[in-house]
């Protein structure tokens, strides 16, 4: 297996140090679905701005406000709790009457807009995310600026961390449809995650290195 500290640095090992996420405002994420709400349908797309609360917590609170089951509220992806993030939630609310989400109140969360939509928003159904990061207390600013220029020109290796697969590979298991597929997936997860620490990301990172 390959530990993160053993992975290759495309631009050489860093010479500078800095502080990331000193406060939530230093880590801003804006979700881009790549499409606009239809304006009709049994679902309601809700664009929210949150700070200090995770996506599932907000989704559950929204479900409670709408008096629907938590499973009726979906999202394209979870966003960091300790950050300022903007994303879309989707609630299944059939009927002609539009709920008044301007009355939805939750500490650390604000509803920016909402509209009807024909389809459920599913996990991964987004164009991408835009990140704005602030590094503080940088020890060598020249080194950082040089590396940023190199990254802009050549990019960085797309290594995968254990969080991509969930706790014990639960995200992989969730992708398996049907009992047979689930059993096969469970066997793979047991083989990969049966050791003391997750290893699936190491296999992918080996391919990236090669």
From TrEMBL:
Q: Which Pfam families match?
A: TruD
| Biological process annotations from GO | pseudouridine synthesis; tRNA processing
The keyword tRNA processing is annotated on this UniProt entry: yes
Q: What is its EC number?
A: 5.4.99.27
Q: Which SUPFAM superfamilies match?
A: Pseudouridine synthase
Where does the source fall among the domains of life?
Answer: Bacteria
Which InterPro entries has this protein been placed in? Answer: PsdUridine_synth_cat_dom_sf, PsdUridine_synth_TruD, PsdUridine_synth_TruD_CS, TruD_catalytic, TruD_insert_sf, TruD_pseudoU_synthase
Q: In Gene Ontology terms, what is one molecular function of this protein? A: RNA binding
* GO CC field: cytosol
Q: Gene3D superfamilies in the record, alphabetically?
A: TruD, catalytic domain (3.30.2350.20), TruD, insertion domain (3.30.2340.10)
The entry's keywords: Isomerase, tRNA processing
Q: What is this protein called?
A: tRNA pseudouridine 13 synthase
Which species does this protein come from? Answer: Klebsiella michiganensis
By which gene is this protein encoded?
A: truD_1
